[in-house]
Automatic annotation (TrEMBL):
Gene3D superfamilies in UniProt: 2.40.50.40
The family this protein is said to belong to: Belongs to the intercrine beta (chemokine CC) family.
A Pfam family annotated for this UniProt entry: IL8
SUPFAM superfamilies: Interleukin 8-like chemokines (SSF54117)
Protein name: C-C motif chemokine
Classification via InterPro entries: Chemokine_b/g/d, Chemokine_CC_CS, Chemokine_IL8-like_dom, Interleukin_8-like_sf
Record's keyword annotation contains NAD: no
Taxonomic lineage from the root: Eukaryota, Metazoa, Chordata, Craniata, Vertebrata
Species whose genome carries this gene: Poecilia reticulata
Amino acid sequence: MESNKACLFAALCAFLIVCSFVCSSDSASCCTRYTKKKLSCLPVKSYSVQTIQGSCDISAIIFHVNRRFVCADPTKPWTARAVKCLDERRKKRVNEVLMGKLSNDSKTQ
């Protein structure tokens, strides 16, 4: 009887440990603090937005820079400038692709 209780207790402990790792993996991808360095737009590839509506504790702009992520305070002016720069860069690329497609289509007609 004692060995059954011990086995049940060990299984329950193992379950709780596994559960704590699974539950904490959601917050592992969240920003927990902001960078103190100001980034220029040039090295940044793209960005994503983190909100506190999910499992994250702070709102942040996550800049994607050469194989790493940099968390920035969305209320800082430099963050807004970098986001604007990236949005303009993306818009320019889309326009270039569309214009290239339109000019290629007119050549084939």
